[in-house]
Design a protein that fits this description.
Chain lengths: 708, 157
Amino acid sequence: MEKISQSVVKKDHEPKMSGHSVYVGDYSGDGVLFGKMLRSKLARAKLLRVELPSLPEGYYYVDKNDVTGDNNVNIVLDDTPVYARDTVEYIGEPIGMVVGPDEKVVDRLLAEIKVSYEELEPVLDLRKADTVFFDYEYQKGVLKQAFAEADQVYQEEFMTGYQDQTYLEPQGMMAEPEENGHMYVHGSMQCAYYVHGAVMRALGCGPGEVHILQDVTGGGFGGKEAFPSILGCQVAVAAKKANAPVRCIFNRREDLEFTSKRHPSLCTYRVAVKNGRVTAMDIDVKFNAGAYTTLTPVVLQRGIICASGVYNIENLHVHGCALKTNTTPSGAYRGFGAPQTFFAVEMMMNHIAQDQGVDSLQFKEAHLVKQGDATSTSGKYHFPVPLPAMIDEIDQACDLRRKHLEYQKPQTGRYRKGIGMSVWFHGAGFTGSGERDHIKAVCKLHKYPDGTVEILASNGEIGQGLRTTFPKIVAYELNLPLEKVYYDHPDTARVPDSGPTVASRSLMIVGELLRRAAIKLRTQWRDGEDQIVEEHFREPDFMIPFYLDKFQGDAYPTYAWGVGAIEVEVDTYTGTSKILGAYGSFDVGTPIDYNIVIGQMEGGYLQGIGYASIEHMDYDSKGRIRNNSFSDYLIPTTKDVPNLKCMLHVEKYPEGPYGAKGAGELPLVGVPGAYVEAVEQAIGHGAKLNHAPFTAEDTLRVMMKEAE
Amino acid sequence: MDAIRFFLNGKEESYEGSASDRLLDVLRDTYRTTSVKCGCKEGECGACSVLMDGVLVNSCCVAMGAAEGASIVTMEGFRDTKRYAVLDQAFAEVSAVQCGFCIPGMVLAAEALLGQNAHPTEEEIREGLSGNLCRCTGYNAIVNAVSIAAKEGNGLW
């Protein structure tokens, strides 16, 4: 193992292990007001009146009228309000906030507020939704001809549901007016500068009048990418009105029900096959965006880029749209649009193989992309594609090929087995020209006279290890012991904008900037002096520029690769599936810390199994999410997948630090395809499963039909 | 009404508030033992786990009245012990701590398990930690850490 990959004790291990770490809920409450949301009870209505009880001294009601700047949360577009405008668009939409010193009094006041609505008919069905938020389309080759010449044409629909990020620490933010009139906002977040931009705009003040600190953050997984911008604006507006610190911590039900989660999807595939090969795909992707746009355009872009999977499809047409419904706005979650379309394409390939009488593993292998091939958006796979070797590694780990053929034979009896395999990539970094045109990352190294070096960047430690891996890179280049290099949680008053903590970009993009900055500092190093070096993002020369209007070019500079296989035993009497083994081979380039990377792979893989199997969440005919507690929304425990084995396959990326690529999202992305294929094989009898999660209840439904 | 007397990390305390207050809230707000985290307040996630007379409990589901006379141990008390030092080293060795929010509860669950069964099998570890949710790790590293601690801490439990 390379030196940089050798594991060290994580820099944040001690305070987290011993319980010394201070999360936003852990600050003393002395002089801090509780903030609680007044939320819409209807999915769609005009707001007529809000009648307040008399408020005791020191208690405030805060709403849109208190927003001194612009009542728009700066995300991508301008539609998400800080507090509801003249209408409410989903159940739970914040209308206002009650703040005050005693939590019980705040609760009583909230219960006494009377809101009058003029109820309107909500749009809840994705198939009937007619407000198109975003619409993208691209194609290559000659689709019409491929379909005209096809031996067979297959068509099928695939659906995926919500997935909640379920970080263990719920959303929480705190705003504190400072003596100089500035506003200090801190809390649980991934992207300090996103919150900075949003709060600045909501308060109508300049960049120097607001600063944002990321507190110790109890997990994010995308759920704390854009959402803290909204909550940050809400507490800042409240703190400004009350002229006192205001803290708002969500309870679990509030968090499960009213914060952004993975977009539900509906994908329709039409596929042409000639001489046993897929020659064309015509794909329609629909994402349920919920009531406001938040991050949906970028999620949809990634989703449709992945729609043809890891397969070389010469004639391709992909159309994607994101539709408005009167539900909680969907947002970022590890994978960011890719898990939905990868599930669809993997199941589609399985089903075509079944019909062609070919083993699906061989069918997939026959269509894999390789280095030099065109990507879906007519960019290029510039680097080696190690999938064939990774599939072999998985085969060695779990006897995949033999079992896949064996379980394909008709099975009877109560317990039946299946094994599924899925193959996928994750494009590392921002989609398209995002890094070059929007993020323009900057980072600095500050060397102090005593020889310690501080990393100044805005990426947040959210459990993925940045407080350790960033210093490892810098210490390595400077030949310093790791203790001499440190990275604190970012405060926008102190650090440049190195971009958000998203898109598996931090280590690959910012880590490389830090490596270059460290080399610069090494060449300029003067003992005993205070020195600062700075580094800016440069797009690699080999990139084929991406144009969003044409939806063409290199959407990503490089790709991390994943192969997953899951073996299950289905109890056909109860519908439950026991996972006998889950195996993953992942290429994220050089691991900057072996334990950290394996921890990411295992954690992401298990989240993927949850998404595929038990994490069912939906809303009722009124638009209310019913799965709002841990007894209704189940995430995996220690006992669900005891045999989870992840391994690394290293294909170095020359533009990443020491060959590292993006890692965090990859292990989740393709998991549903492997799990649902395994269940499908176990059920057998020609069952064609087309949705995830595929729960025990879903299995029972299939078994009941089989019995008829 | 009489104050509720109990021991917190070995120190005798008398709580003047209501017997229906939650132990979780009292530990965090009154005694500022903030290693005890609130993840759901419904007894499902285990982030608020503490030891009550040596038994692992979700402090969100314990009313103060039930704590009368009990000995409560949180991470603030446990972290000074030799057993903690062994667990600490094991968790560090395999990088089992990611976001950290579940960790104080998870470590107390490990302590409760090892107190009952000093040399658990992997299956027994998974059973012993099954009431503590972690969303980051996939659990393998945590299970490994507890297994290492059981070996290294031979005789401590």
